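User: Sequence in, structure out. Go.
Assistant: Echoing your sequence, followed by the structure tokens.
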Amino acid sequence: MSLDTPVQHRTTTAPAAPAATRRPRRRRTSQSWATHAVRAALIVVWLGSWEITARTVIDPFYYSMPSQIWDKLVIWFTDGTSQGSIWANIAVTLEEAVLGFALGTLAGVVLGVVLGRSRFVADVLAPFIKGANAIPRIVLASLFVIWFGLGMSSKVATAFVLVFFAVFFNAFQGAREVDKVLVDNARILGASRWDLMRSVILPSATSWILASMHVAFGFALIGAIVGEYTGADQGLGLLINHSQGNFDAAGIYAGMLITTVLALVAEWLITQLEVRLTSWRPPASGQASGL
């Protein structure tokens, strides 16, 4: 009799499990659709209000309006810009941003982790790092133009500086927050410094580093565009600068919109990278989620 009871229990409860798991999925799907619908409605209301206000209340010469911005984008992507093909300008800005992002991330992770694990070196360099971080970036952009000229190097340098500090402080804090028990256990098992870095410290700091990367690519784009705005012969920053000089508000908004799309695509790619790199971790409600 006792052997039959578990069998009956399994046969009666097994069909209920899929139904129980289906409900949360349906709920999540409906919430996702509702979220997208509300977002779309907000965009429609915002753009519609802007268009109507620009046609009836405010002067579109100063504030532009969505229809003018759309026309400007169509002209740029079909006929080109005053600085050549829009795709060439996008490619230049992207190349500068990606190079600055890659170099800044690499330097920020290496120095952040090293200083995070060496309290003495961190204490010695702390005032210098804080002082360098306090320098206005626009001043550095102007200085880089003098040092490196109007080419790509000055823009990459500006993007590098913006990305470096964003990643450095997160990597530093992530290395400091490593569980001391894990480090001690690894040392007891005979782990070398390299083994500790590779197997304990870097995996523990991964969430901190990836969280900073979500923000860092946006900083890289800002650095590239600020550098181009300061002085360049091609790029989205130059297009925005020329639009400002011509009092072309639609051109400024068009450049901003293209930059926003690039940043959102990069954010999605970084999110996919984060999912792959942290797939070994168990899901946790308090884990950093790429803010």
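User: And one key feature?
Assistant: The chain has two domains: 4-56, 64-277.
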